[in-house]
Amino acid sequence: MKIVPTVTLPYTRDRIAASFIVNLNGIERNIPQVLFLAVFPRINRRNRTANIEASAAELEALSVIADISDPLSSRITYELSEMHGGNFVVTHMSSGQQLVILPAALRRILGLSPRTTEGVAALSAAKLAEVGFIIEGGNNHDSNYQYANYA
Predict the structure, then answer these.
(1) Side by side, which strands form the sheet with 27-32?
(2) CB of 38 within 8 A of CB of 44?
(3) Closest C-alpha to 88, from 77, 76, 103
(4) Is the pTM of this model over 0.90?
(5) How far apart are CA 130 and CA 124, in angstroms?
């Protein structure tokens, strides 16, 4: 019997986005559900959050999947702030960019309930641009993208 060293990997299942959220090398990554289940078929699929013992080969497979599945996808946090005139403060988690956006606009873009006051979402590069973030390399081929001209 061969003993393989493992690492405890916490994960969260995001049923809306059909993905699993894991922390790889200090960065929160979104792994598509079908690919995560292919690497870890032994998990209990009923659990929303849990831990799994992952070998070095499984961690490497997850890193490769995270890099090629959607490299421009990213996570944001949003919070309704009275300090900012009752608007949402939205933070792009990987770049640290922050912006303030009207509640109706954010609710329309993300499809949020009118009662939503805070949350986390995973967005594609197109949605990030629609919210107002500047994502390097994400809008080169989008014909609807307009460049901001500064005087």
Answers:
(1) 27-32, 19-24, 6-14, 49-55
(2) no
(3) 103
(4) no
(5) 10
